Amino acid sequence: MSVPHFRRVAAIALAAGLGLGLAACSTKGDDETDAAGKTIITVDCQPVGAQKNLLQAWNDDVKAFEAANPDIKIKSVSVGTQCANPPDFTARLNGGSMTDVFYGYMTDVQQVIDSGQAMDITAYANKDNIPTWDDVLADAKNTFTKDGKVWGIPTKNYSMGLVYNKTLFAKAGLDPKSPPKTWAEVREAAKKIAALGDGVAGFGEYSSGNTGGWHFTAELFSQGGTPVTADGKKADFNNDMGKKVLQNLKDMRYTDNSMGSRQLLGWGDLLTLAGAGKVGMFVGAPDATTAIVTQFQGKYEDWAMGPMPGQDGPAKGTLGGGEGYFFKAGLSEDQIKAGLKWLAFEKLTPGKGQFDYARAKSLNEQVGLPQPQLFTPGSASQKAEFDLRKANGNIAPEDFAAFENNPVAIKFEPANAQGIYAILDGAMSAILTNPNASVDEELKKAEEKVNQLLAQAAK
User: Fold this and answer.
1) Bridge partners of 307?
2) Which residues contact 220 (CB under 8 A, 6 or more apart)?
3) What's the angle, vertex CA 427, arms to CA 163 and CA 275, rounded to 5?
4) 207-221 per-position pLDDT tens digit
5) What does the DSSP assignment read for 372-393?
6) Residue pair 399/433 in contact by the 8 Å Cβ criterion
7) Could you give the count of Cα atoms lying within 13 Å of 81 in the half-sphere of its Cβ?
8) CA–CA separation, 387 vs 261, rounded Å?
9) Distance separating alpha carbons of residues 118 and 171, to the nearest angstrom
10) Euclidean distance between CA atoms 433 and 125, whole angstroms
11) Which of 38, 157, 177, 214 allows an S-S link to 73, with CB 3.0 to 4.6 Å?
């Protein structure tokens, strides 16, 4: 999950937003066509009002799409915390109150299928309805495919690496153009950065709100491990690779004292510290830098990115994830095709929608990140997207060159990922807050709980 797409699990958001979310966007009783005979579809996760540029761009795109497709009417719905909070999404899913075309993460696929609330769109997921379909990454499409059936359309994709503060690197005598390539090098760099004092942590890490488990998984992939067995039935992290993940962190936290004393960090906590220039490095996706600047008062020029570190050499894998859209059960063929046409326009066409880099640049939005990674390298769509990104980029391309030029094999999140992440939060928080915590014991406890979760999910 990348920064804007990761669901921050907050009880206050659930309490404040759940009831409103369920009522605000129920499509029960919506007509399939209007008086003029236009096919109507409702689509959720319209940007919220605080995201003025994004909201204006969305509205402009709806107008342009409807002008080009006069037989289709788009009804946009903002559902607030549903697009940022797992409990909201699950409650809406169980209540059947989704829009016709509804947003979800790659980690939502199994619960969406199990709910019976989504349609099998296999017969429609093709280049006739989405012209760039054949260029979309196979791995991204596969995450929305179960037992040969297509349940959703990927619309964003990302992979994780090492985000670092160039300014702090320079102050610590490190080369800002040469980020650490191994966890041993991360450890050494973190010590030098932390030695700057003034509350600066050399390396920052999550351990709450499901984010700790998310990062444990990313770092496990770097070791060559995987959180669950190939059949998805058992936990597979209580081993040497899982131990190395936690031991690396424990060593930095207590032996080196290079991670700072403030722990139990969630999504916004770490990025707040990053925006204030108090963190030298952390694991993240390219758009973490966007959030640091737009939401946490940081500066673009401070930040750069390298590939995910490996244990003794290049990483053996890195976590990738993303999001897409599902189709509510019971839609007509015309509505399905209309929804696919909208997603093709807004999400999967270079130069349009999310790939309208010229517009983004004119709005002073960050342009030039190697994300979303949706198209197969070497495909016509990928080349077109790259050329547009290069022509309109307003960030220094060299800041992400180490990341983009040293690709790491992408591993996608397992089924039941959010539940697994919540359990692994416990292991991460214990290791980062208790110097006497045992790596072996924390992994064993987490393994037992994940096995129970997977057994229950299989029933």
Assistant:
1) 161
2) 226, 227, 237, 241, 242, 245
3) 30
4) 999 999 999 999 999
5) ---B-TTSHHHHHHHHHHHHH-
6) no
7) 22
8) 44
9) 53
10) 48
11) 38
What confidence score (pLDDT) does residue 50 get? 65
Residue 10 has pLDDT above 70, yes or no: no
**What tens digit of pLDDT does each residue of 361-411 get?**
998 888 988 888 899 888 999 999 999 999 999 888 889 989 988 889 889
Q: Helix H segments across 196-239? A: 211-223
Characterize the bridge pairing of strands 72-77 and 39-44.
parallel
**Secondary structure element (H or E) that encloses residue 444, with its range:** helix 439-457
Mean pLDDT of the chain: 90
- Reported pTM: 0.76
- At position 21, the amino acid (one-letter code) is G
Residues paired with residue 154 on neighbouring β-strands, in sequence order: 324
C-alpha–C-alpha distance, residues 110 and 147, integer Å = 11
Could you tell me which of 273, 129, 130, 133 has the C-alpha nearest to residue 193?
Answer: 273
User: What is the pLDDT at residue 127?
Assistant: 97
Please state, for a pLDDT cut of 70, what percent of the chain lies above it: 91
Helix axes of 183-194 and 240-250: crossing angle, nearest 10 degrees: 10
Indicate if the pLDDT at residue 81 is higher than 70: no
Each residue's pLDDT tens digit, 109-136: 988 999 999 999 999 999 999 999 999 9
**SS3 of 233, please?**
coil
pLDDT at 219: 98
Q: 305 pLDDT band (50/70/90 cuts)?
A: very high
Among 143, 212, 211, CA closest to 415: 143
Which pair of tokens denotes residue 179?
A: 């980020």
Parallel, antiparallel or unpaired: strands 303-307 and 201-203: unpaired
> How many residues in the chain?
459
> Burial code of 66-101, b = ≥16 C-beta within 10 A, e = fewer?
eeebeebbbbbbbbbbbbbbbbbbbbbbeebbbbbb
Least confident window among 109-113, 247-251, 253-257, 342-346: 109-113
251-277: b (≥16 Cβ within 10 Å) or e: ebbbebebbbeebebbbbbbbbbbbeb
255: which residues sit within 8 A by CB, 6+ positions away? none
Contacts of 183 (CB under 8 A, 6+ apart): 222, 244, 248, 309, 310, 311
Terminal Cα distance for the chain, rounded:
27
d(CA 222, CA 220) in angstroms, rounded, equals 5
User: What H or E segment, with its residue span, contains residue 306?
Assistant: strand 303-307
What pLDDT was estimated at residue 330? Answer: 96
